[in-house]
Each structure stands twice: as structure tokens, then as C-alpha cells.
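REQUEST
  id: r-88c1
  op: predict_structure
  target: Alpha-hydroxy-acid oxidizing protein
  payload:
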Amino acid sequence: MGADAIHSAEDARRLAKRRLPWMVFDYIDGSAGAETGAARNRAALDAMTLRPRILRDVSERSLSSSVFGKPTKRPFGIAPMGMCNLSAPGADLMLAKMAAKYAVPHGVSTVASTPMEKIIEVAEGNAWFQLYFSGDGAGTFKLVERAKAAGYETLVLTVDVPEVGRRPRELRHGFKMPFRIGPRQFIDFALHPRWSISGLIHGKPQMANFEMDGYEFDRTESRAKADWDTLARLRDAWPGNLVVKGVLDVEDAVALKKAGVDAIQVSSHGARQLESAPAPFEVLPLMRAALGPDYPLFFDSGLRSGEDALKALMAGADFVFFGRILQFAMAAAGREGLNQLWNVLSDEMSIAMAQTGMTHLKFDRRNA
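RESPONSE
  id: r-88c1
  status: 200
  body:
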């Protein structure tokens, strides 16, 4: 079965689970602890209902939007995800081409498996660089300068990983970055020959942004030293748009706005860090109320359909981001799988708009 078998995000996930090694699938799919945080956010999304409207002319509908004043062909973009090439060889650049085609932001992870310079080139400028602070910050600010030199205009500081969360599913498989292949991993790869042979042909994915002089990245290194002074230094060092991602507390959000941050991204990191974190979808309208109608507010975490994305926009987000389901689509059927799922998400949103009497995605927040 190929791309034509993908009719939903769950189809993509099911096919990816069949084709990926267990270790890789659980790295992409897993959440913190017993994964109740992910379930809580899913329940919050499911609990929101939409208001069907009838006898409205919805024959012409637009999925266009804008972000930081730039027009986009969709109201959703690509969340930063580490080591995407584990899902399929060349996955980073498949996502970059999608971003270029639809003029949407492609979040380029600090731990991407393709250099940031190549991704922004293929994305035709539609790329944002996602930044982790780690260690003493020396390497972090080197990456900031490198992103600036590469032409990035938007920096996304991820703040919800002072320490990497424990995800038992990946720990049980002995997942390490970079790979350390022992007997268990060898058997896992041998039982998934399609993925393994493709990996051998294209080479083992690397954390490409750290292949520079004077910097080595340790995924487990503490990121706990970042504080409000760090943010102030970053704000001074970065002339473009500064987004802070991973915010789930209204008091923090208000403080970030006062500190000169250009946008906030409500996110639980896909429930991968703190199992007991509140459901981001429940926090979203509270953030909108506290920050006012005009402040840029983005959302990711747990979105599985175009209808989910529409709910997030209606709940207060200006723009939303899909994450791991895009990796599942590429694992299932490569570029064709990604294209298929992207079209599914677009169709789901457009149909939901028709059912609810909407022709565009411009919301009057002042009268909400």
C-alpha cells in the first residue's frame, strides 16, 4: 500500500508503524511518562464542537492566511522536529519543498538531520530556525549567528525542555542520538529491511547543524541554565522575529510579551516532556484573552486533522503547526505520502469550513 491508502493522519500512523523499526517509531510517536498528557490534550480537542450553519453560500472558500505580515496558502505550517530523516531519507527536504510550495513556515530543528543552510534554500526562504539553549550557551549563540548568516528571519526559542523528558517507549529500545547499535537494535533493523536498506544506501542520519568547528551537541546535556537574562541577550542578538515556543502559563506569556518577544507558541512539545502539563488546547483561549486580540499567537501539539487545526484557529491561534503526523506520512510513502496527507488536511479543513458556514479564516478577536 502506498500514498493512496492515506485517508487520514491515523492511516499514515498505522502504515508508519508497520514500516519503521520499533525504536524509530516509538521515538517519533512516544510521549512522556504513561502518556496521559497526550491523552488529556486529545480529549480537550475532541470535546470542542463546531457550530453547523446552513443555507450560506460557501461555494468559494479560501485557506489562505498570513504570518508576520507574509501571505501563506495555508493557515498551518510545519513544526520543528528533530532528526526527520529517520522517518524517510530526505525527509527534511521534502518538508522544505512543501513549505516553498505553500509559502508556509518550516520549523528547522536545532537537531535537524540536514544543514540549516540547505533547508532554507530549498524552502525558498520559508523557514524558521528553532533554537535550544544548552550547556553554558556558547554553542547556542554560535548557532544564532549561523542562522542569521544563512538568511533566517525568524528564530523560535524552545523553552520547555530544561531537562529532556523521560519517554519510556524510546528508553526501552535503548534509543540514543547519535545511534548506538547493539544486538537489540540490530534485530529491530533486520526485521524492518525496507527502512534499513534505504538507510544504508543514503547513510545514517546525523545531527547536521553541529558539524562545525568547536561545537559538539549532547542531546542529554542540561538546558536548565537558560533564564530571563538569557532571553534578554537573545533579544539583543536577534534582529528578526523572535518566537518563544513551549509556553503553557499565562503569567509567563504576559511576561514574554513585555520582554519584547514577537510571538508566543502554545505547545506542550507534543506531550513529550512533562506528563502532568495542562492540555495546551485548554490553555490557548486563556492566552488569547490575556495577550489581547492583536498579539501573534501560534499553536502546536496533538493536531491530527484539518478540523483540529480549524478548532485551534477558532480558539485563539493565528497560525498552527503540524508535527509528527507529517513524519508518519513520509515513513508510509515518502514524498507522495506527505503530499497526500497535506491534501487530506487541506480537504478536512475546507469541508469543516463549509459545514460551519465559513468562507475565510479571518477572525474578529475583538468581539470574541
